[in-house]
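Title: Prediction job returns without error message
Component: structure pipeline
Severity: low
Priority: P3
Assignee: unassigned

Description:
Job completed but the reporter wants confirmation the result is attached to the right record. Sequence as submitted:
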Amino acid sequence: MTRIAGTILLGALVLSSMSAAQDPFRGDRSWMVENQLRRRGIHQTDLLNAMETVPRHLFVPESSREAAYVDEAVGTGPGGGLLQPYITALMIELLELNGTQKVLEVGTGSGYDAAILSRLAREVYTIEISERLGEDAKERLRDLGYNNVHVRIGDGNGGWPTEAPFDAIILTTAPAEIPPRLFQQLKTNGKMVVPVGGILHDRTGLTQTDEGMVRRRIEPVRIAPMSPDP
């Protein structure tokens, strides 16, 4: 490491009472968790349970549902898409959530990652720059019962100052560098996971300390660039 100075609610529980006929993707979720996540070293039990419960196929267009659980990113329309399941799990596991934290997500997309976060955090605040994507995600999350997720349309570079500070911050889009206004909204000993720079990005884990920022590089990953700060 190098040193640089300086809620769990009821979302998707309706699926738990569905038969296999009513929820034809239940087996696909189990396969995804076992083969794409557990075998690659994702071990957090609550996270694995969330990814086996949250209906990923309901966060993509109906025409793409057969591809919802494949081992790759899935497009959700202009300007949107779901990350590869392993990448979603890796990023969220790095936050070390235990159900008590207040989390900020930048890059809501269709709302899938926010839904996963909602099963692991006390409250989730998520920002989407696209009004169409943000409004669709807000409606979808509400309809599926993720009532501890709060969606705002706007520029994520500035974070959500009125709700700061946050115990954890996660970016699902890639900025050219770490947005300083976001890091300033992180609590002391809070964790931030952010993919930084270019097309093939370093995934960086940050921890806020009394002395400044502790930075840990994880692994390269391909994620769409973040919209620039106007």
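Comment from assignee: result matches the submitted record. The chain has six helices and ten strands.
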